[in-house]
């Protein structure tokens, strides 16, 4: 989420972004989040978690790729 700050602080850093299939990640993150939220609140809306996390993860990936593009270091491997 803060790749630009990381690279500004450590300009020689080599960053490798690993990822899992979003179809696996989002349900997993939602289950974990719902379980943690249930500890602290009765007001948890599990149906809202999926879209919120999907948007957050997509935004983080887009930001990371934009930072890499600006730095001229973007490489995408399958």
Beta content: under 5%
Q: How much helix, percentage-wise, in residues?
A: 55-70%
Using only C-alpha atoms, the radius of gyration works out to: 16 Å
Can you write the helix and strand succession as a string? HHH
Shape: elongated
Question: Secondary structure elements and their pairing?
Answer:
Elements: H1 3-9, H2 22-40, H3 46-71
Helix pairs in contact: 2-3
Describe the structure.
This protein is elongated. With 78 residues, it is mainly α. Helices cover 67% and strands 0% of the residues. The model has no long low-confidence stretch (mean pLDDT 84). The longest helix is centred in the last third of the chain and has 26 residues, at 46-71.
Name the features:
mainly alpha; 67% helix; 3 helices; single chain; 78 residues
How do you describe this structure in short?
The chain is mainly α and 78 residues long. 67% of the residues lie in helices and 0% in strands.
């Amino acid at each position: 989420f803060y790749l630009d700050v990381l690279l500004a602080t450590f300009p020689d850093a080599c960053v490798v972004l690993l990822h899992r299939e979003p179809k696996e990640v989002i349900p997993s993150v939602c289950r974990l989040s719902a379980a943690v939220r249930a500890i602290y609140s009765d007001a948890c809306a599990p149906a809202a978690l999926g879209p919120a996390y999907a948007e957050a993860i997509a935004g983080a990936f887009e930001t990371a790729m934009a930072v890499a593009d600006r730095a001229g270091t973007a490489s995408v491997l399958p």
